[in-house]
């Protein structure tokens, strides 16, 4: 004997027309939100600051302190970012900003923004950054702050510049040096990172610069993304869609994407030097690197050193940062290994739990009177 299911039983597992409409509306809202995240800019780098010095395109910023003067650390922190990116990632968004974090802990903060090179800057090289721009900015910073000793934080190529400065000007008041994902040692040509492209004999930086002058930021950005194409071109957007209804995740993604999209060119002279003298010839670690006739001897670097290495860094593999610990003359030196990538260790979700507190604690011990 058979029985027929009632219409109500058949329809029990199906959404109603009202529910269907609600789902369509929700999907449309999500799609609109997804599109806005891809095509608009978030508000980033909002912490109040003032310009205290300029040279050509470069600017030196002083962040407005947030704690009383008597509670501030006596040794200020001078921050140097890479020359082919905006430094806004240090102050990504309110509530998730390394700058905010350090200000709350009583540090006087200064940031050197290299600016965007124009066609007239195509011959600028590391000699200019290390021996002209950086010393002049530091002289102004000392005048404004009144401090004779200072700490310096260098990230990516900013770490390379800071390292060479610290070795060439060891008696200029630099007390503490923090290196973040520092590309310094290129002896391992199979290490990955940009050596994948630069070690190819057909890769000719001189020809690129001869044809283009300054190297477009889009070219460098594409090279970086192609080191992990699936993750960079698909994974990031897939994650955004999966989390599109999570406001916190969407806000964080939007801020990071805004910074990533704001790319600038790299001065042609510096690009040639980076590929030829660092990546291909490894002059810094060999002790043969010269800037305006001065040899960069890492043994002369004597500042207290914290070397922060990202264990999953595909831009600066850990091996490019490790060997400097044996090369420098610093007596007080430490390596901090952090799980994460080139940018994530300082701007990712775990940065304020894993990286920032260690940096602050290390610096606090060395920033007293």
From TrEMBL:
Keywords: Acyltransferase, Transferase
Enzyme class: transferase
Pfam families, alphabetized: Abhydrolase_1
Top-level taxon in the UniProt lineage: Bacteria
Listed InterPro entries: AB_hydrolase_1, AB_hydrolase_fold, PHA/PHB_synthase
PANTHER family with a match to the protein in the record: POLY(3-HYDROXYALKANOATE) POLYMERASE SUBUNIT PHAC
Name of the featured protein: Poly-beta-hydroxybutyrate polymerase
Lineage, opening ranks: Bacteria, Pseudomonadati, Planctomycetota, Planctomycetia, Pirellulales
